[in-house]
Amino acid sequence: MLRSLSRVALVTAALAFAAMTDEAAAGQGLSFTFTPKGEQAEKLRQGLQIMTRIQALKNVARVEQRGSRNGAAILQTGGTGNAAAILQSGRGNSATITQNGSNNSYGILQLGRGRTSNVVQNGNGRTGFTVQIGN
Predict the structure, then answer these.
(1) Does the reported pTM lie above 0.70?
(2) How many degrees, rounded to 5, is the angle at CA 79 between CA 119 and CA 56?
(3) Which pLDDT tens digit goes with each residue over 12-24?
(4) Distance between CA atoms of residues 8 and 43, nearest Å
(5) Do 49 and 87 touch, CB atoms closer than 8 A?
(6) In the chain, what are the helix, strand and coil shares in percent, each to the nearest 5?
(7) What confidence score (pLDDT) does residue 24 get?
(8) CA 69 – CA 73 distance, rounded (Å)
(9) Would you list the DSSP string of 64-112?
(10) Which of 50, 59, 76, 93 is most buried as measured by Cβ atoms within 10 A of its Cβ?
(11) Does the pLDDT of residue 34 top 50, yes or no?
(12) Residue 108 sits in which domain range?
């Protein structure tokens, strides 16, 4: 399972860097959201919920920030088994994840300056990942 998850993460990272356009290189930034279906969704969900299994908690939220003037918030209501992570490196980034329901998982990675991402998951079993790269 971890090998498959590592491959998904590696492919996701490679796609992010390969998708950089001239606008991204010129300081406009790059953002993409990955919302897999089927087996890939299950693997992403399992990877994001590893924290839940390890810590044996009902809902897990993690925020990691490096840099200055970054803001992040995670709200989990109405269910169990949710996992959310926001990782920010840079300055002036803003991200929120709201999870209403059970067994949802989402991750946001922001690199650079001035990126904004707001995600709402309503229902059960939803999963996704957003990567934002900017100057």
Answers:
(1) no
(2) 100
(3) 554 444 444 444 4
(4) 8
(5) no
(6) 30, 45, 25
(7) 47
(8) 14
(9) EEEEES-EEEEEEES-SS-EEEEEEEEES-EEEEEEESSS-EEEEEEEE
(10) 93
(11) yes
(12) 2-133
